[in-house]
Amino acid sequence: MAETDGGQTAGTLQLRDIADLHPRRHPGSGRRSTRLGVVTRLLVLEDDDGLRSSLRMVLEDDGYEVAEAASAEDGLTALGRHGVDLMLVDLMLGGMDGFSFIQRARPQTEAPIVVISARDGVQDIVAALEAGADDYVTKPFVVDEIKARLRALLRRPSMGSSDTRGPEDALVLDSVAGPLVFDQGAGTLTRGSAEIHLTHTEFRLLGVLAENAGRVLSRSSLLEHVWDRGFFGDERIVDVHVRRLRKKLELEPSAPSTLITVRGLGYRLDVR
Fold it and tell me: What is the reported pTM?
């Protein structure tokens, strides 16, 4: 666990913030679910016992069913045994670190992963996102920010959701080398007969780009529509996810023909 300049651990600082903002229980009030009548399962992977316990209390008050893990190994066991809908993951863990956990967990699940870490360097943020994380929050954080980011992830349509476009609206992204077909209603991306796996965030990002095919979308616009966050956020998150998505869309990612960078403006999805 890393220390701050004042000698306190990042977890201790965070615990103070959570204690200050912990919601009071009102007599007769029950827990509410974050989805319509469906309990959302959330894994908190954090090796600071006090912080992990406080996060659990706060999030259970918000209606989540929370599983705790103090090590990456225990987190992988919980993931395999129960399955989860969301994950909060610290990077600085004893034994296997958070980066390795994300790399191991990502092939098993498309559940969104939010990193919570005192490591705020650009390289750490990019590495976590490249490993498969969907979002990154630095410690110390305000608990309301964590709640807002989790709610934003839950508001995104799931793959195959009835809220997305129907199969008749499947879009051929590339008819030259493929064909490459994105079917938002079915929640699939295929090249020929082979399905290409997308994470939760990659699916949503491609959906927004496809709905605006041929138009340049700025990083701030993508941050707002994909991450549901127009009021805070780091635009580097957009760049990393675009790079990851481009590797899956393009036969030659270094010379893209479908997901184009428009220098100084943003990104454009070209259909050919």
Answer: 0.72
Q: What is the 3-state secondary structure (H, E, C) of the chain?
A: CCECCCCCEHHHHHHHHHHHHCCCCCCCCCCCCCECCECCEEEEECCCHHHHHHHHHHHHHCCCEEEEECCHHHHHHHHHHHCCCEEEECCCCCCCCHHHHHHHHCCCCCCCEEEEECCCCHHHHHHHHHHCCCEEEECCCCHHHHHHHHHHHHHCCCCCCCCCCCHHHCEEEECCCCCEEEECCCCEEEECCEECCCCHHHHHHHHHHHHCCCCEECHHHHHHHHCCCCCCCCCHHHHHHHHHHHHHHCCCCCCCCCEEEECCCEEEECCC
Question: pLDDT tens for residues 60-101?
Answer: 999 999 999 999 999 999 998 878 999 999 999 989 999 999
Q: Where among 104, 132, 155 does a domain terminate?
A: 155
Are both 151 and 19 inside the same structural domain?
Answer: yes
Q: Please tell me whether residues 20 and 143 are part of one structural domain.
A: yes
Containing structural domain, residue 221: 167-269
- What's the structural domain count of the chain? 2
> Could you tell me which residue, 175 or 159, shows the higher pLDDT?
175
